[in-house]
């Protein structure tokens, strides 16, 4: 009994330990300068790094702006949604 | 774009001036323009899903648990904008030079509110990227909305520069 309940927990732990991508998708309405400001504010990125991600979103339609554990990834998506960027959580 | 100027009145205040009655009225419409009520497309844009359908259960959970926080945050930004807007004199002179004073610590709320209004307007009127790049000539409500989106974008850009130290 104990073994059958432990297995899903391990799976869940593994799932949460896997690196998750925070992806921002292009929305032509958002100003480029606004997107840059949001990346700097949410992730603490330098202007250069924030602009690089912004240009990637603009030119390629999406950019992986952060990768890591599930919980902080969810928090970042929430912060990006607060700023009304189109952000999703994706498994690599 | 319109002959509107934005400058730093002092360390703590930004002033928007050169507003004619029409543009002043457009600014006063920010809060209503940002409201997605009654428009599924606008609701969907302001409250997008975190996995885009890849994890339906998580998306539902997000809507139940996170969306109320988003609503509260959006409302707080719009409340701040509204407190500044009500201080804007309704009419100052025959030449109609309306001025709006905004405390620097309100600027970020303004930037978010303007962004929200632009997104909601584009979704509500289903304005395409092509339409956004060509100001329509006919003077209908749709054309006015495109102009409104551009005008809010202009103000938002100016505020972003002010936030960035006037660069």
Largest sheet of chain B, if any? 3 strands, antiparallel
Content of β-strand of chain B: 5-15%
Mean pLDDT metric of chain B: 90
Overall helicity of chain B: 55-70%
Shape of chain A: globular
Query: What is the CA-atom radius of gyration of chain A, in angstroms?
Result: 16 Å
Q: How would you sum up this structure, described in words?
A:
The complex is a heterodimer of chains A (92) and B (167). With 92 residues, chain A is an alpha+beta fold. In chain A, 60% of the residues lie in helices and 20% in strands. A three-stranded antiparallel sheet of chain A has the order 2-1-3. Chain A starts with a helix and ends with a strand. Chain B contains eight helices and three strands. The mean pLDDT of chain B is 90. Chain B is mainly alpha-helical and 167 residues long. Chain B has a three-stranded antiparallel sheet. In chain B, 57% of the residues lie in helices and 11% in strands. At the A-B interface, helix 2, helix 4 and strand 3 of A face helix 5, helix 6 and helix 8 of B.
